[in-house]
From TrEMBL:
It comes from the Bacteria. Residues 121-173 form the RNA polymerase sigma factor 70 region 4 type domain. NCBIfam families: sigma70-ECF. This is RNA polymerase sigma factor. Residues 26-91 form the RNA polymerase sigma-70 region domain. Belongs to the sigma-70 factor family. ECF subfamily. PANTHER family: RNA POLYMERASE ECF-TYPE SIGMA FACTO, RNA POLYMERASE SIGMA FACTOR. Pfam families: Sigma70_r2, Sigma70_r4_2. Keywords: Sigma factor, Transcription, Transcription regulation. The keyword Transcription regulation applies.
Length: 180
């Protein structure tokens, strides 16, 4: 098993870059897909954003300074690509990014890749009512079990702020679920 330091060295090498990138895809594709999917909701959109994410990673790997974990750096790119995707859709449809997310949630019932039941759909609706940052924090902690320390690197904020955001998000979701 290759560690991140070796993988990074190979990714930055002209000789091993292609093979190392295939390894990177194998190691992180599924985790990044689900991270993106939690943000954009739709399978097809998540696939598009995932592809853009890996293109960006490939093009910018030489700019990675190693100040955070490789995983955190890639998650930051995936998060930013997801937000950019939502904002572009909002602009194209001439609606707010919140409305784009609501449309995506409404479309979940017709998404053949959505395997959730009515309870999971209700949870997605509750998450969509949260401010964007709280959505990210909740999804990363609840669905992906990302540690606050790693999340702080990904979202470039303090662990304390993330813990507070998560706590507030949970309360808002509980309120939504009891009222709806």
């Amino acid at each position: 098993m290759i560690d991140d330091a070796q993988l990074l060295e190979q990714l930055k090498s002209d000789t091993y870059k292609e093979q190392a990138f295939k390894t990177l895809l194998t190691l992180y594709k599924e985790r990044l897909y689900w991270h993106i999917r939690n943000i954009v909701k739709s399978h097809d959109d998540a696939d598009d954003v995932l592809q853009n994410t890996f293109i960006k990673i490939y093009k910018n790997i030489n700019n990675f300074k190693g100040e955070s974990k490789l995983f955190s750096w890639m998650y930051r790119i995936a998060t930013n690509e997801s937000i950019t995707f939502i904002n572009k859709n909002a602009k194209r449809l001439q609606v707010t990014s919140e409305e784009v997310q609501q449309i995506a949630i409404n479309n979940l019932t017709t998404d053949v890749y959505f395997e959730g039941d009515a309870i999971q759909l209700k949870l997605q609706q509750a998450i969509a009512t949260l401010p964007h940052k709280q959505q990210l924090v909740f999804n990363m902690k609840y669905f992906e079990d990302i540690k606050y320390k790693d999340m702080a690197h990904i979202l470039e904020t303090s662990e304390g702020a993330l813990k507070a955001s998560y706590h507030i998000a949970v309360k808002k979701i509980e309120d939504y679920l009891t009222k709806n």
